[in-house]
Give the backbone structure.
Amino acid sequence: MVEMLVYIAVLVFMLAIILEVILSVTKADRTIKTVRTIENSAIVSIEKLQREIRGAQSVATSTSIFDINPGKLVLNTLTATGSPKTVEFYLSGGKLRVKEDGVDIGPISEGLAQVTNLTFTRFATSTSEGIKGQITIESSTSTSYYRSEKFYFSTLLAENCLEPALLKTKLLFGRGRT
């Protein structure tokens, strides 16, 4: 009888350890998926922003909103045939969206990720013009898996660079977790 109680106690102890391992693996998997969602959304969004900024003829400063959240960036660009068009980046419903010539193309941030901060800053020198930006993206599957990260970018408009050496683009990943 005593042996049976010892066997049951050992079995319960082993089951508790196995259950704890399973819960830890599940939590790690959810955390990884959350981080992956945020980073994929940041990569796609920033890459699209930088590509359009580099190809822009100029920044429409009168219709863009700088240095406040939510910001709006309006770029004057050209189509493949050479006719003028505008490209607008803005925040709506927690998604980074894009319009071309006033027509909403749709969101460029991922579905499960929410953009909570979008700020643009224009900078210009005598030889170049560019845009610095900050995007805060958050994602969660529940309150225990909430994650928020800030991403920064800085890109020059290629059309306004007088010296090829000035044509630089950099992407800085800031890890502002909350």
Remarks:
- The radius of gyration is 24 Å.
- Residues 2-173 form one domain.
- Residues 66 and 158 are 20 Å apart (CA to CA).
